[in-house]
Amino acid sequence: MRDIFTKKKLLRGFLAALLLGFFLWLYAGNKNPYPWTTNEIKVLKTLHIDNLTRALPNLSNSVSENSLAARLGHSLFFDTRLSANGQVSCATCHQPKKSFTDQRRRGIGIGFSRRNTRSIVGSAYSPWLYSDGRKDSLWSQALSPLEDPNEHGSNRMRLAKLLANDSHYQTIYESVFGPLPDISDPGRYPADASPLRENLKPAWNSMSAEDQELINEIFVNIGKAIAAYERLLVPGPSRFDSYVRGVAENNLKNQEPLFNDSEIRGLRLFISKANCIDCHNGPLFTNNEFHNTGVISSPNDVPDKGRIDGIRIVKTDVFNCMGIYSNDPDQSCDELEFSRIDMPELIGAIRTPSLRNIESSSPYMHGGQIETLTEVIEHYNRAPLSLIGHNEAKPLSLSRFERRDLLAFLKTLGGPLSTDQKWLTTPGTSDQ
Amino acid sequence: MEKKMGCMRATLIATIFSLSFTFEVAYSQDQLWISEAGKYQLSYISELNPVPINQMHSWIMHIETVNGEPLEGASITVEGGMPEHDHGLPTTPRMTEELGAGDYRIEGMRFHMNGIWEITTTITTGNNRDVCIIPIEL
Question: What is the pTM of this model?
């Protein structure tokens, strides 16, 4: 009988010890995992915003650093007269208050855009623009929506005439690019003409090659001015950057509570088990490269072929870095020259987006297929088979708690832009 | 028993020792890499050092025969990828110039991820063809 009691006591003691051990283990797993290892700190520092030095000048755009050109671009960016119905500007989809996105599945201009609106913040750092990289400069990219029937729905002739007939635009344009030619003769320059719009091709083809060239120059300069403005849109420090600075300087005590335990665990997952940093690397949290991550198309949509199409388009684009409208006398177009074409891994590959301010740019993915960040993390955790091409990502086996931590970390990447406030609103009447 | 413990201790030390080597993967630019058929030895110097990610740059490859004679007049092709991720380089590098004394300029190098990469260099001279795989950890 006594033996039984002793045994029971022993068993109880053992169970208590086991329970205590379990809670200790739980505590150890959940407690603030600082300090980071030297290697981890090295990795964290590569993500810090201080690494985002001034973007290299775009040699194909001689006015990319010209502040007057940026002023012109600023006005053009917010001007709805740059559309067929007078209601659509660049800022219709790229809204400053929404991290220069529209928070819609797809952009709505005159019609529906083909893909989700990407933020243009920090885009001056990318060698490629659009989800499929079918443009290789900001200025060349800016031209596309202007003539897209579903976006601005305008045409290069109409836009050139808008500049020529607006005294503000004319003055500032001529200060930047030199005299605007006289394009008032309707016999030589019809009201609407473009080589890209079926209904406007006859008018375009009726023009002499010299006159077409002249209109193209004005059209390209509109793009170059908008690009000079867009270069100014640069992300600013986030809570993450303050935390990493604290870690790097071993000076967290004065700055707590900068990151809570969940955010720290999330950051650790980001740079390790969750593999996010493979593609979301550097101070912009993107390698600006193309990856197939098995994102399923929206219902009724054919799978997006992504980069395999994008590279073919940009290679033959008259407005690319090697074209006659580039200002670079040496045509140093390394990215275009050494780009990959026709490789299977480019099928369905989409350009990695920046994660800075990611919380305010929902919905996500190239077609806006995924509503929330929680679902995005679940997508990467599953890594489903790709409908076309091959999904580079592998299932992650993140627990529910780990997914929650990762989400907590991603939310620390928000912060105001390091761009003067005056560039973030419609230019004042004095500017118009 | 004592002997057994001693044996276990030795195994433990050996394991820790070998593990420390397993995790210390470091490839330096000073290293020589021998081609698969053993004909050539390669080394490279990156224009940017340390080799960065997300930045286009060039390399100079130095190729010698295994006897130390600089290889001239060869045709070089370069491919690369990450075995762990099963994808290639984001660019198609190309030999753009033979600099003499066994040196060849390779342009269009760009890496877009940290981790272990393999640069597969194919060296062709006349009917001779050999391949050299250079590992690099970023």
Answer: 0.88
